[in-house]
């Protein structure tokens, strides 16, 4: 009796193993494309950066605005900050670029400094350029205006 | 006074006296008309020798105008050449690339000779190890960069314009930011290339105090 159960269990295990290897060999067409799971898919081509310079609306008020131009080769290090050569307060007249937000002059105690606070120096920690791609996953994000409108359609806000 | 009059040639005269006599003799040969060679031979030989010397001189100079020569010294190879490899002037979509002399040596002959003579200072610097370690190079990087910026500012970014001419710029093919900036500052002559395009082929030094930088 006992040995029969053990044999059945072994058989089930073997069947499971075969099934899982077959599963591994199967192709899935998800984000990774139609490539078997045990193989490495070829990397997709790099797409160009959005260089339209057109301002994009923020999705929520404290979203860091995205960079609507290429930043290839822009150095940001101890020696220089290429972004600031246009976006610094004193440079915006000539460059006509938007000035760095006034919040970036504050240190973490809320004190205003003469120039960009060191903790805000590395622009691309928050602000990023965008590649021209189709979103691989649909996004259902709604901004607050849409949410309010949908919840109370008749009332004026 | 007969003993001091004229010492016999070659005997015990001092070396400078013998050299002087030798040069004087050569000068005598040069200023006398030839008695052996015809005028035609002399002119032709002079012409051929001229071609050979001129060609040889320019060839030798062009040999110093190649990237292989520039990167022959570790100062260039390990510092600025490494910088260049990351930039668009080294690798780009169409495969046209600039080498060291394209930007750092004028293409016109007279200016080129002037620059080459200036570069003898760089040979001095190499021999005496002015920037022979990374630390020394980084310390002097601003000074070296300031020299190049001043040079390009003075010649209206001549080396940039050897390839990038304002006449051939199609603004509709540029990004909106570039097009606007070129229209406002380059075409009006208010600024020259190097005023804005610093650090496009090499990493920048400490830019504090450089106009237009933070």
Tell me what you see in this structure.
The complex is a heterodimer of chains A (157) and B (214). Chain A contains 4 helices and 2 strands; from the N terminus they run αββααα. Chain A is mostly helical. A two-stranded antiparallel sheet of chain A has the order 1-2. In chain A, β1 and β2 (33-36) form a beta hairpin. The radius of gyration of chain A is 27 Å and the shape is elongated. Chain B has 214 residues and is mainly α. Chain B has a domain at 72-164. Chain B contains 11 helices and no strands. Chain B is elongated. Chain B starts with 14 loop residues before the first helix and ends in an 18-residue tail after the last helix. The A-B interface holds A 51-53, 69-70, 72-73, 75, 78-82, 84-85, 88, 91, 95-96, 115-116 and B 86-88, 175-177, 180-181, 199-200, 203-207, 212-214.
CATH class of the largest domain in chain A: Mainly Alpha
Number of strands of chain B: 0
Radius of gyration of chain B: 27 Å
* Alpha-beta content class of chain B: mainly alpha
| Mean pLDDT metric of chain A | 84
Total count of strands of chain A: 2
What is the end-to-end distance of chain B? 83 Å
Cα Rg of chain A = 27 Å
Question: In order across it, which strands form the biggest sheet of chain A?
Answer: 1-2
Level of helix content of chain A? 25-40%
Poorly predicted regions of chain A are: none
Please write the string of helix (H) and strand (E) elements of chain A: HEEHHH
> What is the CATH homology-level superfamily of the largest domain in chain A?
Flavocytochrome C3, Chain A
**Largest contact between chains:** A-B, 21 and 18 residues
What is the CATH third-level topology name of the largest domain in chain A?
A: Flavocytochrome C3, Chain A, domain 2
Number of helices of chain A: 4
Report how far apart the termini of chain A are. 75 Å
| % residues in beta strands of chain A | 5-15%
The gross shape of chain A turns out to be elongated
Mean of residue pLDDT values of chain B = 90
**Helix-strand sequence of chain B:** HHHHHHHHHHH
